Amino acid sequence: MTGKMFGAPIPRTEDERLVAGRGRYLDDLGAGAYAAAFVRSPHAHARILDIDVGDALDVDGLVAVYTHDDLRGPMAEPLPLLIPHPAIRDGRTPHALAAEYVHHVGEPVAMVVARDRYVAEDIVERVRVDYEVLPAVVGVAAARRADHVVHPGMSDNVAARLLQEVGDAPAAIAAAPHTLELDLEIERSASTPMEGRGVYARWDAADAMLRMYSSTQTASGVRAAVAAKLELQLGQVEVVVPDVGGGFGVKIVHPWPEEVMVPWAARLLGHDVKWTEDRREHFVAAAHEREQLQRVRVGFDDEGRLLGLDVRIWHDNGAYLPYGVIVPLVTSTQLLGPYRPGAYRVEFDSLYTTTVIVTPYRGAGRPQGVFAMERTMDAIAARLGLDRARVRSVNLIQPDEMPYDQGLVFQDGRPLIYDSGDYPAALAALLDLVGWDDFPAQRERARAEGRRIGIGLACYVEGTGPGPYEGGHVQVETSGRVRVATGLTSQGQGHQTILAQIVADELGVPISDISVTTGDTRRMPYSVGTYASRGAVMSGSAVALAARRLRDKALRIAGDALEADPDDLEIVGGRVRVKGSPASGMDLGTVAVLANPLRYAFDEASRAATQFGGPADFDRPPVAPDDAPGLEGTDFYSPLRCTFASGMHAAIVETDPETAEIRILRYCVVHDCGRLVNPLIVEGQIHGGVAQGVAGALYERMAYDSDGQLLNASFMDFLMPYASEVPAVEIDHLETPSPLNPLGIKGAGEAGVIPGAAVLAAAVEDAEGFPITRMPISPSELFHLRRRFASGEIPPLRARRPAAPAPRPSGQES
Amino acid sequence: MTGKMFGAPIPRTEDERLVAGRGRYLDDLGAGAYAAAFVRSPHAHARILDIDVGDALDVDGLVAVYTHDDLRGPMAEPLPLLIPHPAIRDGRTPHALAAEYVHHVGEPVAMVVARDRYVAEDIVERVRVDYEVLPAVVGVAAARRADHVVHPGMSDNVAARLLQEVGDAPAAIAAAPHTLELDLEIERSASTPMEGRGVYARWDAADAMLRMYSSTQTASGVRAAVAAKLELQLGQVEVVVPDVGGGFGVKIVHPWPEEVMVPWAARLLGHDVKWTEDRREHFVAAAHEREQLQRVRVGFDDEGRLLGLDVRIWHDNGAYLPYGVIVPLVTSTQLLGPYRPGAYRVEFDSLYTTTVIVTPYRGAGRPQGVFAMERTMDAIAARLGLDRARVRSVNLIQPDEMPYDQGLVFQDGRPLIYDSGDYPAALAALLDLVGWDDFPAQRERARAEGRRIGIGLACYVEGTGPGPYEGGHVQVETSGRVRVATGLTSQGQGHQTILAQIVADELGVPISDISVTTGDTRRMPYSVGTYASRGAVMSGSAVALAARRLRDKALRIAGDALEADPDDLEIVGGRVRVKGSPASGMDLGTVAVLANPLRYAFDEASRAATQFGGPADFDRPPVAPDDAPGLEGTDFYSPLRCTFASGMHAAIVETDPETAEIRILRYCVVHDCGRLVNPLIVEGQIHGGVAQGVAGALYERMAYDSDGQLLNASFMDFLMPYASEVPAVEIDHLETPSPLNPLGIKGAGEAGVIPGAAVLAAAVEDAEGFPITRMPISPSELFHLRRRFASGEIPPLRARRPAAPAPRPSGQES
């Protein structure tokens, strides 16, 4: 199955186009379309008293202004709750245009359609909305207090609550020789892809068909959602995803209010309509992630072995819950990492606030989970005076325990069972790579120079490639060109390259003959989407299976024509040939001609095929039963469970004794995503992930004031790291193949970001000698922590507080 | 398999739309498109010396003028020879725009693209073409003489020549007790559908995709041809066929010059382009049919039993041969009808003339073949003084001889084997229906009143539903709506109705829940086309097979959910239910939800399905191996051979003794197209066919002068019968099911037209008492024949000439 391309670090085939500026993004489409712009709430929480569009009506170029009053049927109802998980107590979702209340700054209140965007924005300014301003609820603490309730009809702000238990954790902790309790906090950040959201819709009245282009991570999800909202059959909606300038999770939400309003208006107006998000809109009206408060209670033995772990999570899901419960679900199940936790109890509250919605952002709850677990590991080591790597080591699941059942229900509702992995080997490799054992000497040398340096490590296990399925379609044209399609979308990950690599090997064709289409419901209507590091696992497996079907068919047809047993044939360089007799054979394009009993005398390929005509067999139908014309293969990959990729990061940092500036000296990664399709792309994914991990640990945060105004809603104020802040990343690959899929691969897209906050907190803590419990951390924050540590307000690492008595039973506390 | 809908004479579901004027034809599309118009040759044969577009360039609204000099690559080469049959000696095809020569009036020389059609036509007038006029070659006789050769480089005008033999016909004739020789002639006519041709093309530069709409009988053929000409992959071309206002064969040609020029220009200009044919263009630049000269030599015994039959055919294929050889191929093989011919020899020459091309027109060579055979039968009866029905009867193939191998190679290259039929029963039914035995008394009564009446009959067998395949796709949406697609196109035959009837029964759903799409390569890329009465046989069978696959899947899924054996389930009214316990079940829409493990919480259907969720089985992948998400079924029907429908027509005519006006008193049809899907539609097809048969026998002809100018190229001059000229048609159905397909059906689309000329010639001959050998026949022609008969120039029926000695061997004569 593996050949020359699988595993080869070839440059990305799409880069010739993308890097040369020939990408085709949403805003490159729709010349001649009307432009949409949105009147958005300036308040975090308010009741709409009146909307006056009078001043807008005399603007030249106006096409229409819509408010909620213009919507009917499903369009007037709230947008769907995408994951109606039983943990949800009261699932509130936004309307396409606000009905009576607005619940965050930026919420769409009215839609303007105009000749062009300039006019549309001018008209937006002229729409007057009268609001009764209501109290904002900003942050987890305020949401828990519930002095103000976000949604009418609710008595508190708890959107969802879930408890999972394996064994009796409180009892195990109570009985443990040692206990600890930690309060931890991760702040809000967001995906901030280069390209914001965007939607372009064309209604073909004659065909009664809607064509939509959306900068989305799920073509099929948008299709289903828009069809339902617009009361169309699925078959009437085509969703095509052009090049997408990054997604990182924010574009998996569907439908966005704008994503149903634009096609709705296009149909109503009988004219193309387009909307492209601007940067401020993306900050205030797309989605954020990460914000959590965590309380960890842990019991352990003298060697640091976990006996009981009890984690309580308070999660800010923002104003609405279209998608949000997935994030604390992931945190609560995947924080276990490569460890056996002993008895385990985890409970989360997901809370409404009057801020923009929270949906998965690369890592999707895992960075928070890893922060909880790895901060705990470091705290145990400090308490016991043990080496931090040693404490991790005693808790690691061993290779011979695989597959390992954590006993929990995973985010997809299936059992949480790790498929494979060799965590001890990974830890050994990491310690070797970073020079863990040599670090004390290094620290001493630095100290002698008046420098503070610290080392940290963090481990994670990541469920990647969840089901239920993706499809692959592979077709050989009569020209010999190979067309590959899969339903999930690309946001720059290199899918075109790796899927072509896989098909090239399976079929024996040059990669230059292969073109790959993703995210186009015309080519593959059944699909799920690009998230949870599922591209390579799911679509890679699907196109491999589809290519195998095609290969079988090609060899059967060529065998008939060449009067050879298919087993005696091979495909090399796009040519089917008899093994050991390479001159005897035919091009795959010729096989494609032979695969269709309907011949057209149009082209060389058909003429070339005539030499293989042979005497016709009139007792055989031209297309055999259970066969089909054409040289195509379609198959679906549908796994029993997720694959579990894993990794361990170590970082060495230096903190400036005076300015408290934090500088990363080394950043080492040992990464295991099973078999590598393309090491160059995996390393690129890790580099990018580490960059976002560093960003989330040291720079990026959403600065809301207490009125719910986002104070840094621009790239002037939102502190994104430059290349100068991102460390060189040293990578060592482990490859423990997944037994769950035909290629043995696991997902790699999110990995790099996951342990970022945890490893940098550990390294800073190691440099400073006092606990780091809240990330991101800025130089000024570190400076103030030093002051509080110096004043005794913060205890030293070894003197942390033991676990309090077990908390009250679930459901009583919020 | 058969249920309530199959066989039911329900009104056509498409008529609510079509009859109310809500049809959507080619010219209803493409608002905003540029209009194309063509500069066409005014000469039948000429060399282009110069094209001067100078005067055109300053017209406001001009977009572009193209001539052959603007074409490159495949576009500059001649259009393809669609059926490269080995009988073709020199296959000439036109260019998209004439290169150096023009070979018929109306041939496209230049293409004008302008803001609208008015401007385009004005510009056409301003393009000056200098021609060197060359001699026209009009009609078979002129083509055979070859005083002038149509195509440079050829020494004569013989495009194709084919001989087929079973036994030694010349020897059998020479040895026969009786012989006859007949010279016969059929003139040119044409399809003249209500809607002419038309093409509308949209090039999507961003997608690099071409969408074409064409008023065609073959979406897939147009797609393949245009892809080849424009050097696109098949996957880059979508062809959608809107409502089509009649085709009758003329629209099976692909690509027309206009059909490649319009998309070529759309791509070049980056703008939609449309062309709609006007009526004069259709007369001079589309296609005609029928023109043949035939010489029949026959030997027979005292009872009229055929011993040897030798038929020589000279066929006018017009200026080019893109498709034309199929017509004489059909004539030469299908003239045998329901008879055993004894030894058989047939040879045709297909000849170039400087007239518009000849391609199949409803009946497609069969009317000419039936004319040859049935005129021969009548001549034998006259010679022997036997009853004409009796002579036919002794020659009929008997039911117990089925399947019957005529020993010839059929038009599709496969053996000519009749699948089923009961010809003696059909003849008995026809004689009974028309009152054959009572006619002599009726004739005597009329004669006593001074009236001349005559009776005639004609029999035919028609190969219908040739392969190689058609596909069917059936899908149940989660709403419960059923979408059916097949690749072949509709031109008003009622496919939407009969395919829905078939699927309704197979699936157990109400017909109102079914929508049918034809001729859309987006829905069914593999297809052949609508011709040769293949719609019901091929696509009917294909959708039935597809629906059975879907049904199996639906019962399996519902069985899982209901915990019932699929064999214990039935589908009634769109609901799967347990037999004998009808309250227990679920709607098909719910089954469609269950068929996709990816659930969206969007709609009622998904929520309704949750009650059938049951405990998840984590040891089973969400999509089983070899399964696929969704409730769909696709299958292809690919027959071993054609089905053979048959029929016998009888007519009673009255000829005015003074004016020679011919009036049809009765027209009786016994028709056998196997099992009837919808008798109303079959009868409509027969009525329409008879109308065209009567038209071809008595009214319609193409009046070319010797310069190749068509003198009657408008509906003012082309004599199309009104309803007042079309007789009431009395129909009796026989149903001998075809053993070749799952529904037992045979084609019915062309049947009505086939014996028209033969049966009316026979009836007129019977009324007049002298041979009728050339059709159509007008009152003035009949008047002149009477004069020639009275003068002794035409012999009476019994005194026809015996067969001459056997002609020279094939290949020597032309």
TrEMBL record, chains A, B:
Residues 794-814 are annotated as: Disordered. SMART domains: Ald_Xan_dh_C. The keyword Oxidoreductase applies. The keyword ATP-binding does not apply. SUPFAM superfamilies: CO dehydrogenase molybdoprotein N-domain-like, Molybdenum cofactor-binding domain. Keywords: Molybdenum, Oxidoreductase. It holds the Pfam family Ald_Xan_dh_C. Residues 20-135 form the Aldehyde oxidase/xanthine dehydrogenase a/b hammerhead domain. InterPro entries: Ald_Oxase/Xan_DH_a/b, Ald_Oxase/Xan_DH_a/b_sf, Ald_Oxase/xanthine_DH-like, AldOxase/xan_DH_MoCoBD1, AldOxase/xan_DH_MoCoBD2, AldOxase/xan_DH_Mopterin-bd_sf. GO terms for molecular function: iron ion binding; oxidoreductase activity. It comes from the Bacteria. PANTHER family: ALDEHYDE OXIDASE 1-RELATED (PTHR11908:SF132), XANTHINE DEHYDROGENASE (PTHR11908). NCBIfam families: CODH_aero_grp5. This is Xanthine dehydrogenase. It comes from Marinitenerispora sediminis.
